[in-house]
Write a structure and sequence with these properties.
The protein has 2 helices and 8 strands; from the N terminus they run βαββββαβββ. By secondary structure, the chain is α/β, with parallel strands linked by helices. It has one domain: 2,3-Dihydroxybiphenyl 1,2-Dioxygenase, domain 1, CATH 3.10.180. It is globular.
């Protein structure tokens, strides 16, 4: 399991990003020490997303974070209600999946379950 991933965001976008990640089951946690001055973290179980403050953040056009969500259909409904439009993709490993962009522009893949 991957423990965390770091994504660049404008510091001003952190509240919107935290609300987005909350829809996927992630809660804000306090970053340790000096990291709290240059990042904001969200966590779900043992997985973390580190939102690194950047004046000119880079969101990769194809690279993405993949997240297995507990209730796929309810998560998509919550995203749509919050103004995000998931883009359905072909099933892999028999799992429904889609892509959505977070407020900072990062691609996030949502899956009903992972491979294996």
């Amino acid at each position: 399991m991957i423990q965390h991933v770091a994504l660049e965001v404008r510091e001003a976008d952190v509240p919107a990003c935290e609300r987005f990640w909350a829809l996927l089951g992630f809660d804000p946690v306090v970053a340790p020490g000096e990291l709290a001055q240059r990042s904001a973290w969200v966590q779900r179980g043992g997985q973390q997303i580190h939102l690194l403050f950047a004046d000119a953040p880079v969101a990769l056009p194809q690279g993405h974070v993949a997240v297995v969500v507990e209730d796929y259909d309810a998560t998509l409904a919550a995203l749509r209600s919050a103004g995000f439009e998931p883009e359905p993709r072909a099933e892999y490993w028999g799992s429904p999946r889609c892509f959505v962009r977070c407020p900072a522009g990062h691609r996030v893949e949502l899956m009903a379950f992972g491979p294996g």
